[in-house]
């Protein structure tokens, strides 16, 4: 464990009043007050990732997320594997809790990072929470990133993973009637779009449920709401978001791609969904709009806004107990949908 991670663990155990004094006056937006433990993070100066070469930005972002993740949950077996993909072998991380009976539920997980940054370590702890709470296998995908790989390469990888687990379900010990898909931020977009693709193609097996956390579900320009009030939020701000867009969609007309805009597509006939947002996030209103649109389309959709948290909170367990509590709540609710 590095020294910074150790210190964050110490801060996490300090009383909120002590952390508040260290963090400064409460940070507020749209009626929400930021968790002081996360606010303390915002005081740490760091480079503007959008001004760095992509390779350097990836190194810094990945190290930050590894530092902010809490330790893995005990009793979860973890292995790194390689599975066949559309452009060659794909790296995945496979989690399963000790004592899980076969056939078991399976969750496919797609990580955050704007389809430009981050990797299998980004939400490693949350994947162990999912495996433990849902008594399920979890497979996290290291999908291809932009700008090296042209959109929708990441979505092609996600669909290839789905096809693989359906094809190999018996060998994997998976119950095809209880397969869920989950992702945060860009991974939320991948989750939403994969569910739409499988429905549109009339796939014989459809996801049992979907969980999208602070999802990116629209690539259309936004000039109001949380996109403006949280334009300077931590760790995702509008500058970084626009940088992501430029890397993923080098041509302006690509912003209209249906797979980049699940919010604006037909939503009827999709699996039950949980959508969770954070108060301090420029994507907050997108996620809320998606939950409302799903409900309007007749989909069983549950919505939560964790107003005192920020974007990326699934990875903040080392510093914020509220982030951990939110992660555990979402895992519990997802478990109920997979077993319904």
Write a structural description.
- This protein has one domain (3-339): Alpha/Beta hydrolase fold, catalytic domain (Rossmann fold).
- Helices cover 39% and strands 20% of the residues.
- It has 12 helices and 10 strands.
- The strands form 2 sheets. Strands 3-4-6-5-7-8-9-10 form an 8-stranded mixed β-sheet, with helices on both faces.
- Helix 2 packs parallel to helix 3, helix 5 crosses helix 12 (321-339) and helix 6 (153-167) crosses helix 8 (186-200).
- The longest helix is centred in the last third of the chain and has 19 residues, at 321-339.
- The model has no long low-confidence stretch (mean pLDDT 94).
Tags for this entry?
340 residues, alpha/beta, Rossmann fold, eight-stranded mixed β-sheet, two-stranded antiparallel sheet, globular
Spatially, the strands of the biggest sheet line up as 3-4-6-5-7-8-9-10
The average pLDDT is: 94
Which residues sit in consecutive blocks of at least 5 with pLDDT less than 50?
none
- DSSP, total strands: 10
- Rg over alpha carbons: 19 Å
CATH topology: Rossmann fold
Provide the CATH top-level class.
Answer: Alpha Beta
The shape, in one word, is globular
Bin the strand percentage.
Answer: 15-25%
* CATH superfamily heading: Alpha/Beta hydrolase fold, catalytic domain
Instruction: Give the SSE string.
Output: HHEEHHEEEHEHHEHEHHEHEH
**CATH architecture group name:** 3-Layer(aba) Sandwich
| SS summary, helix count | 12
> What is the straight-line distance between the termini?
40 Å
Mind describing the biggest β-sheet?
Answer: 8 strands, mixed
* Total domain count: 1
């Amino acid at each position: 464990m590095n020294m910074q991670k150790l210190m964050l663990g110490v801060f996490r155990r300090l009383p909120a009043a002590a952390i508040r004094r260290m963090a400064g006056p409460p940070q507020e937006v749209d009626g929400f007050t930021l968790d002081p433990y996360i606010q303390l993070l915002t005081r740490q100066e760091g480079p503007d990732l959008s001004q760095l070469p992509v390779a350097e930005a990836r190194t810094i972002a990945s190290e930050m997320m590894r530092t902010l993740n809490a330790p893995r949950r005990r009793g979860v077996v973890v292995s790194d594997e390689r599975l066949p993909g559309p452009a060659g072998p794909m790296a995945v991380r496979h989690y399963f809790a000790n004592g899980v009976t076969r056939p078991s539920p399976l969750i496919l997980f797609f990580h955050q990072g704007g389809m430009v940054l981050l990797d299998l370590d980004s939400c490693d702890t949350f994947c162990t929470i999912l495996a433990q709470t849902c008594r399920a296998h979890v497979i996290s995908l290291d999908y291809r990133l932009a700008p090296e790989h042209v959109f929708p390469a990441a979505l092609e990888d996600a669909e290839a993973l789905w096809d693989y687990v359906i094809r190999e379900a018996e060998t994997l010990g998976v119950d095809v009637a209880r397969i869920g898909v989950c992702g945060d931020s860009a991974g939320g977009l991948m989750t939403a779009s994969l569910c739409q693709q499988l429905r549109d193609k009339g796939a014989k097996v459809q996801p049992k449920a979907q969980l999208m956390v602070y999802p990116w579900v629209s690539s259309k320009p936004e000039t109001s709401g949380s996109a403006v009030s949280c334009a300077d939020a931590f760790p995702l701000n509008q500058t970084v978001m626009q940088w992501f867009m430029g890397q993923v969609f080098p041509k302006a007309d690509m912003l209209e791609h249906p797979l980049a805009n699940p919010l604006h597509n037909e939503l009827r006939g999709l699996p039950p969904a949980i959508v969770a947002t954070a108060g301090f996030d420029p994507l907050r209103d997108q996620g809320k709009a998606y939950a409302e649109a799903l409900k309007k389309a007749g989909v069983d959709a549950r919505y939560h806004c964790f107003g005192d948290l920020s974007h990326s909170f699934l990875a903040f367990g080392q510093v914020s107990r509220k982030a951990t509590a939110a992660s555990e709540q979402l895992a519990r609710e997802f478990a109920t949908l997979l077993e319904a």
